[in-house]
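As a warm-up, study this chain.
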Amino acid sequence: MAITAIVVGTVATGYQIYSGEQQRKQQKKQLEMQRQANQDAKTRAKEAADRADVEQNRANRKRADVSAIQSKEEQSALTGPAGTMLTGVEGVKIGQDDLGGNTLLGG
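Now compare it with the structure written out below.
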């Protein structure tokens, strides 16, 4: 009877160890599956955000205001040749501000 109890105890202990290993393997597998699912979700979220950015950029494309450019050209055609901020419409008059040099800068 004592031998039977020892054998039963040994078998029970062996089964517990085996069962514990199986549970650990299953937990490890489930944890890896969860990690993979999280990674997939992050990837899908990033792809969705990228698609949303592309769609928003497509919807908000900037176009040149051609009518404003054309109206400015028409106005300048009516007022004469275009001048610069430094010289005005007349341009540079050689000799007016001559400082004795042979260049427009007086050097």
